[in-house]
Amino acid sequence: MASEELRRELGGSFPVANVQALASTYSGDIPLRFVRPELHSEEVLVDETLQIPTIDMRKLMVDDDDDDEMGKLHLACKEWGFFQLINHGVAEAVVEKMKADVQEFFKLPLEKKNAYAKQPNAMDGYGQNLVVSEDQKLDWADMLFLQTLPTPERKRRFWPEEPTSLSEFTFQEFTFPGIHFPKGNHFPANKLILSKDYTVFALFILYTDFQILKELALDNAKNMPLFLAKYCLSFPLYVKETLDKYSSELVKVLNCLLKLMAKNLVINPEQFTNMFEDVRQTVTINYCPPCVQTSKVIGLTPHSDFGGLTLLVQVNEVQGLQIKRNGKWIPIRPLPGAFIINIGDIIEIMSNGEYKSIEHRVVVNPETERIAIATFHSPSIGTIVGPLPELIKENGIAIYKSVSREEYFKFVLSKKYEGKSRIDLMKLKN
């Protein structure tokens, strides 16, 4: 019992079978932990004309006084909780490179992927998250979960080395005292080979920091002279890393959306964006293998996201995302080049219910795997998660509790991952 409580508190999971391997070998009955009998009673709409709104970021950035587009954004956040964002400003090459590298990772043999397997009482790594009991029903999916921001909190040993571009960096040509480094050398971001004069360490220290190196248990780092660490900061390095670039580009989109939402909510945009200044960003890459018995398994359990704002990109052309609206499931058709944006529980709480987080799920395809990259954004450390004073209605009634971000995460990670049950428990009994 004590170990289970600790696991819940830290957001870790019980180890579970690898679904990709299971899907490639099983024949016959689905293992009972994956069977979801409730699927038979769920109604799915077949009206293809009913879709989430599409928002054009270019129109909003050129003229944020465009009442039509701002009105569409406000309605999307208030009535749908989901929308597709086009002309978002992230270069196609950045997104396509991320997609390609993700696909290559899941093509690796299981033993190579398992080198990044989740550890007990931790969320980063390859496997499944939020499995808090040994009899909990499981999703027909594997995931790679990585914390990308703040940078000091990255756990680099879980960042895959293959494909190499996903977690390597290159540097410009320069001369370290006594040694010349040519342009373009590559170093895996989660390994370090130290020479006696710390030259390779010197390269690495700019890209990470002492905290990350300690997390990687690099004993040599403890002996790094302070003067050398300071000297390293002047090196003309630059990061050319798929995930790093993708991460930073999505933060730009996040900040733009937060400012626009603040304007629609008639609050100070800086007040809203400052809460996300040192944003906690995590990337979850979901892989749902095909299953011919689609009526028995679920790719992702129905839930609402407990963070602030989620940006999702579909890696391949296989659909599967569905949102719940008026008690029925609506399949979402991703637009080429678009991000699918959804409101998380934190923004619903901060807006005092004005904007809505929406229950959603992923269903499995009978013939082809589905891969998607979801990037979650939550407020900075020390932020109070609660209704903003300006948004408490005229009668002064707050719908939700106010707690610290740390208390909030501890609370939601200890609860069952199902529907909107977690945010419902944050409601005040007025």
Explain what the structure shows:
- It is a single chain.
- The protein is an alpha+beta fold and 430 residues long.
- It is 30% helix and 19% strand.
- It has 14 helices and 18 strands.
- An eight-stranded mixed β-sheet has the order 1-2-14-11-16-9-4-3. The chain has a four-stranded antiparallel β-sheet with strand order 10-15-12-13, with no helix packed on it. A two-stranded antiparallel sheet has the order 5-8.
- A hairpin with a 2-residue loop joins strand 12 (321-325) and strand 13.
- The longest helix has 24 residues, at 242-265.
- The radius of gyration is 22 Å and the shape is globular.
Comma- or semicolon-separated keywords:
eight-stranded mixed sheet; globular; four-stranded antiparallel sheet; disordered N terminus; alpha+beta; about 425 residues
SSE layout and pairing:
Elements: H1 2-10, H2 19-25, E1 54-56, H3 57-62, H4 67-80, E2 82-86, H5 92-107, H6 110-113, E3 125-127, E4 142-149, E5 168-170, E6 174-176, E7 179-181, E8 186-188, H7 199-207, H8 210-215, H9 226-232, H10 242-265, H11 269-274, E9 280-288, E10 300-303, E11 309-314, E12 321-325, E13 328-331, E14 339-343, H12 345-350, E15 360-362, E16 370-378, E17 384-385, E18 403-404, H13 405-413, H14 421-424
Parallel strand pairs: 1-2
Antiparallel strand pairs: 2-14, 3-4, 4-9, 5-8, 6-7, 9-16, 10-15, 11-14, 11-16, 12-13, 12-15, 17-18
| Form type | globular
- Main beta sheet: 8 strands, mixed
Strand content: 15-25%
Strand order of the largest sheet: 1-2-14-11-16-9-4-3
Please tally the β strands and state the result.
18
